[in-house]
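User: Hi! I'm working on a homework problem where we have to compare a predicted structure to a textbook description. Could you give me the structure for the chain below?
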Amino acid sequence: MQTLSYTNLSDKIQTFGRTWYDREEQTLYANYTCGGFRFRFTGSFLAVKFRAIPDTFVPPNVTPPAGAPPREDWPYVAVFLDDDQTPCRKQAVRDGETVPIFFSETVQTHEVRIIKLTENFRTALGLAGIVTDGEILPFAPEKRDVIEFIGDSITCGFGNAATDPAHEFEAAEEDGWMTYGAITARILGLEPRFISVSGISIENPVPMPGFYCMRDLYPYADRIIQEKLAIRRSQPVPLADPYNFAGKPARYIVLNLGTNDANQIYFRTDKAQALADFRKNYRTFLEEIRSLNGPDPVILCALGCMDYYLFDEIRDIVDQYRTQSGDHRVDILKFNKMMNVGADVGGCLHPSIYRHKLMAEDLTAKIRRLQEAGL
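Assistant: Happy to help. Predicted structure tokens:
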């Protein structure tokens, strides 16, 4: 049996999503929804050593029982063998845990894919090493076009696996593999890449310590984990490492933000100024997305399926942007609205897996129309 560090295996592991390498602990973090790793091995036993950070947030309306230990909700992963699209297991992962992945009485050769099901900011997951009685083999990486999803709790799959609409966040009830983004990617044969965080907006009207807006995060590989680890280690908070947009360019970018921005407008006294601020911030972010990704990707400005207060504003922003910039590789999509009762509803009144499947139908149909138009 041998233990192999990620550092010694990096040329034999394909990564998915935005990743960040922690040199201090020689760990590769893949924290955004559906981030993960893929490799090929031969042997009779395989286990993976993880680093992890749990969610410890206690909602204001929840009072823990007296004497209860601090809340720790650990990230969940899905494990896939070979070309299966259905995971052979889903499980929580604790920090420093070595998780058995495969065991057989005979030597076998398989490809293993490990995907993070839970979102960034709430939980963190890193690959520290692999334990096996065999070896990790070279293999040809998959080559698929990327579809990128920029979003909030809807895109993360917050509560999509819950059956009780009163439930707040629980890692076991957030299934990134069954979000509208991941489902759409599988239908179209694309590779999904998520940059999504629950509760996030385009811009915070009043910056709050420890809470990000999307413009704080988008240019960077994973600003969240860099800052979390620095704080845990009592180190100065570093400048975040930029993301390499040219390394794996996106073909489609789905921007599904505006739901939480509408909440911000609700709580501001001057609604007209709040709306003007949103329009300015959305337009600025749209221009930043184009600048960072180059002229080729199609940007789809979407909204839904929980709230549509800002959809007319987004449509108007996109129309003006297209006219003024001459950039016609930008379009809009209004997801069909979810019902607040029945099969549509997951945890905390968020869309269920059933509704995510319907959202995937909306998005798939839209992208196929774009493809028919040569985009």
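For your comparison, note the following. Residues 218 and 289 are 8 Å apart (CA to CA). The radius of gyration is 21 Å. Good luck with the assignment!
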